Structures are given as structure tokens and as C-alpha cells.
Amino acid sequence: MTKKKKFYSKVLNFKTKFKIDDFISKFALENSNIGVWDYNAIDNTVVHSVEAKRILGIEEVEDDKVTYNWHEKIHPEDVNKVTEKVVQHFNGETQTYTSEHRILSKDGSYKWVKDTGKVVERDKDGNHIRVIGTLIDINEQKKQEANIESKQLIIENQNEKLKNFSLMVIHNLKSHTANFDSLLDFYDDAKDELEKDELIAILKTVNKSLTKTITSLRGIVTVSTSKNDNIECIHLKSFIDNAIGLLTIKIKKTNSIIHNEVDSEIFLDFNADYMGSIIQNLLSNAIKYKHPSRSPIIHIESKVTEEHIILTFKDNGLGIDLDKFGNEIFELYRTFHQNEDAEGVGLYLTKNQIEAFNGSIEVDSTVNVGSTFTIKLPNKKV
């Protein structure tokens, strides 16, 4: 073979190899779900590969080279984040530009993409002239991530409800147990049959309440994702009167006076088990943490605004040092007085139950003067 033939043979082989390599590259790109774009900053045009067009919803018949305003293509909530990354790369602060954001398709919908680019040509002043990059459709991936996050939130919600449920069971049953203990002590000390009969009647009431509590707790033991389960229309004043009745022995034992001054016209849609627990906790605490030199006096008042139903529980007890404990009052297992029965569960539970229905609770307290707890619940009848 002559030198000339060898030369042409090498050229032919090179061209053949080049075509094969070009074919392989093109095939790989078109079948890898990766779109390619080539941006010309001088005339502000961009060339898209077939896959990039598919991702963006650009018709195949359209000219490959189109004027491109990428600010208009990116979701308004993502523009600033993407712009910051692009500018950093154009300024040479990063080797490449990479961003996950939502981009506008031709059909008007937004989809999540992973966009990666790199400046491949600059002018003599260092300004970018040409940028090439890849585009990957990650919309399904983002949907799966959102679905996983949603399920994770549900699981966290369920765990929180389960924890609150267990605390409520312990707290409520302990309250009933304490009532039984006190009643039996009073029964042993009763002076006549009339007093014993009266105590038996109270004992039956407490037992009935315990049965109702157990039934209610059994009803909510099935954890639900809906906070609206077990909602009842509660006549607030009567409901509080019933709660006060269950504390008869404690009230007598401590000479407590409770004034239920709640407006008799107020009805509230709320979880009855939660409301019973909230009232019992606040009243029990007001009695438990009474001032040693005076009998407990508790005022329960109400106020209705356009947005809220407001309940206040005001006592004349020991009070709490808010400067010292203000940020810890509603934390779990936090106690503030040397009371052997204190567990630090009641206020934590109360706050969680109120917030479960988009309400709030605040406290104002002065040591040796007393405390006022203010509950705000949404007025849904607005």
C-alpha cells in the first residue's frame, strides 16, 4: 500500500470512528433522560437537545435555536435562589452551577428539574460568552420525597398523640384514684350513717366518672390523623360544673371556693375528653398549690370576641416565679414547688391539648399572690 493510500485509509478510519463516537454520544444522551442545552450569551439564544425539549415541553418542529429568558421560566419562589447560584458561577466562585428548582413547561405547568451548567467560553474581559449544561427531570423524585415527608409527619403526629394519650391516661386515672383514697378516708372518719350515705353517693358519682373516663380513653386509643375526632358541642358552664363536682372531696378538704362565672350562652365544639382533662388539671393545680395561710379561691371567667372564646382560671395560691421559670412552665416533667404529688405532666398535657385545636394558653403569676391561666380558643361560629 502506498503512503497516499495509507493516509486516506487513516482519514477514513478517523471519520468512521468519529461518526461512531458521535452516534454513541447522541444515543447515550437521547436514552439517558438527560437533556443538554447550549446557551449563547452574545445573542441570548439557547439550543436544546431532544430530551431537553421534551422536559421543557418544546415542540420538536421548532427551531433548535431560540431566544431564551430563563428568569421567566423559573418559578417565582425559586428565582432568587437560582440567580444567586448562577451569578456565583459567572463570577468564578464555583466550578459549576447546580440547582434543583421548578421550571415552566410550555403547557403552563411547573416541574422540578436538576439544572447543571458550566461556562466554557469567556471574552477577553472574563465575561461569559457560552454556557453549556444538562437538564434532568426530577419531578417524580420530588413527588416521592414529598410523599415520604408527609408520611413522616403523620408518624411524628401519631407518636406525639400516643405520648399525650399515655400521659392523659396516667394523669386522669391518678386523679380518680386520689378521689377514691380521700373518700375512703372520709368514710372511715364518718360520725354517723347519714354522713356515710352522703359519702357513698359521692363515691358512686366518682365511680361513674371513672367508668366514663375509661370508656372515653378506649374510644380514642385508636390513633387517628384527624384532630377533629371525638368533637362534641359542649355547654361550657355545665361542663365546668360537672368537673367541679368531681373535685368535691378535694374542695371540702381544703375549704376551697370555686366561682364558675362562665357565660351560660357559650357552646364550644371541642374534644370532650381533652376539655375535661384541661379543666381538671387547672382546677386541681389551683387547689394543690394553695397558699398555706389561706383557703383557695378560684374564679373561672369567660369572654367572647369575634375571633376567640377566652377562658381564665384565676387563683390566690402560691404563684410561680415567672422570671425564673417563665420559659419552663409548660415543659414536660417540670415542677416548681416542693409538692410530693407533683409530676410536671398536667400543664404540658394541657398545652398540647389546647394547641391541637389551634388554641393557646398563657400564664400570669406572682409569687405568694396567685396565678391566672388564660386560654384562647378559635370562635368557629364567626
Automatic annotation (TrEMBL):
Pfam families: HATPase_c, PAS_3. GO terms for molecular function: protein histidine kinase activity. Its EC number is 2.7.13.3. SUPFAM superfamilies: ATPase domain of HSP90 chaperone/DNA topoisomerase II/histidine kinase (SSF55874), PYP-like sensor domain (PAS domain) (SSF55785). Keywords: Kinase, Phosphoprotein, Transferase. Residues 97-150 form the PAC domain. This is histidine kinase. It is an enzyme of class 2 (transferase). Residues 168-381 form the Histidine kinase domain. NCBIfam families: sensory_box. InterPro entries: HATPase_C_sf, HATPase_dom, His_kinase_dom, PAC, PAS, PAS-assoc_C, PAS-like_dom_sf, PAS_fold_3. The keyword Kinase applies. It catalyses: ATP + protein L-histidine = ADP + protein N-phospho-L-histidine.
